[in-house]
Design goal:
The structure holds two protein chains of two kinds. By secondary structure, chain A is mainly beta. Chain A has no helices and eleven strands. In chain A, strand 4 and strand 5 form a beta hairpin. Classes of the chains: A mainly beta, B mainly beta.
Chain lengths: ~110, ~110
C-alpha cells in the first residue's frame, strides 16, 4: 500500500536560509509524487509534481524537489526562504493506476525574521 | 485564473442531520473528487466521479455518503445522517482528465457536527 511520511510537523527557518522539507514514500510501483502548499484559509495548491521524467523537478515560487528512488525520498527545497513561504506543505503520492492521491500529514513551515 | 469554489466555508450541524456540501469545479474539467481532513490528521481521499458515476471510492465513503452532479456546474457531497466523527474539512478537487493530471483543490468547507 502506498504511504507518505513527512518528517517534522513543524519546521522553522530564518528568512534567507535554505528550506528543506523531508518526505519519504512507500509504493509498490513507480509512483507519481506531488508537493502541495496550503496558505491560511485557502485550498491546496500544487507546487510541483514528479511523473517519471527528470528526477529534479522545479516548481512554482522557487521550490524544487528531487526524486531519489534508492532512498524513496522526494524532499522539497528552496535556496532562500521568504516570509511569504510560511504555510503548510503536503507531500503526496499516487499510484499510476489510481484516481486518488495519498497525502502526508503535512509540515507547517515557519519563517523567522 | 479559474478556480474551484466551495460553499459554505463553514457549516455547523446537529448529529443525525443531513448536510450537503457544494462545489463548483473548473468549467472544462471532467473529473471531480472529494477529500477530507480531520483536524490534526492527513488529507484523505473519499471519492472520484466521472461521467455521472463514481469512478473510485475509499473505505470511508460508506452508504452515508453520496455524490451528485445535479447540473452542469455543481458537484455535491451529501452526508445523510451526520456523526460526530464526520467533523472535518472537506475539500473538493477537479482535473481535466483522470489520474495524473493535476487536481485543483477548492478552499474547503469546515464541517462541525455537534
Amino acid at each position: 500500500a502506498q504511504s507518505v511520511t513527512q518528517l517534522g510537523s513543524h519546521v522553522s527557518v530564518s528568512e534567507g536560509a535554505l528550506v528543506l522539507l523531508r518526505c519519504n514514500y512507500s509504493s509498490s510501483v513507480p509512483p507519481y509524487l506531488f508537493w502541495y502548499v496550503q496558505y491560511p484559509n485557502q485550498g491546496l495548491q500544487l507546487l510541483l509534481k514528479y511523473t517519471s521524467a527528470a528526477t529534479l523537478v522545479k516548481g512554482i515560487n522557487g521550490f524544487e524537489a528531487e526524486f531519489k528512488k534508492s532512498e524513496t525520498s522526494f524532499h522539497l527545497t528552496k535556496p532562500s526562504a521568504h516570509m511569504s513561504d510560511a504555510a503548510e506543505y503536503f507531500c503526496a503520492v499516487s499510484d499510476r493506476g489510481d484516481d486518488k492521491i495519498i497525502f502526508g500529514k503535512g509540515t507547517r513551515l515557519h519563517i523567522l525574521p | 485564473e479559474p478556480e474551484v469554489t466551495q460553499t459554505p466555508s463553514h457549516q455547523v450541524t446537529q448529529m443525525g442531520q443531513e448536510v450537503i456540501l457544494r462545489c463548483v469545479p473548473i468549467s472544462n474539467h471532467l473529473y471531480f473528487y472529494w477529500y477530507r481532513q480531520i483536524l490534526g490528521q492527513k488529507v484523505e481521499f473519499l471519492v472520484s466521479f466521472y461521467n455521472n458515476e463514481i469512478s473510485e471510492k475509499s473505505e470511508i465513503f460508506d452508504d452515508q455518503f453520496s455524490v451528485e452532479r445535479p447540473d452542469g456546474s455543481n458537484f455535491t457531497l451529501k452526508i445523510r445522517s451526520t456523526k460526530l466523527e464526520d467533523s472535518a474539512m472537506y475539500f473538493c478537487a477537479s482535473s481535466v482528465s483522470r489520474r495524473q493530471e493535476t487536481q485543483y483543490f477548492g478552499p474547503g468547507t469546515r464541517l462541525l457536527v455537534l
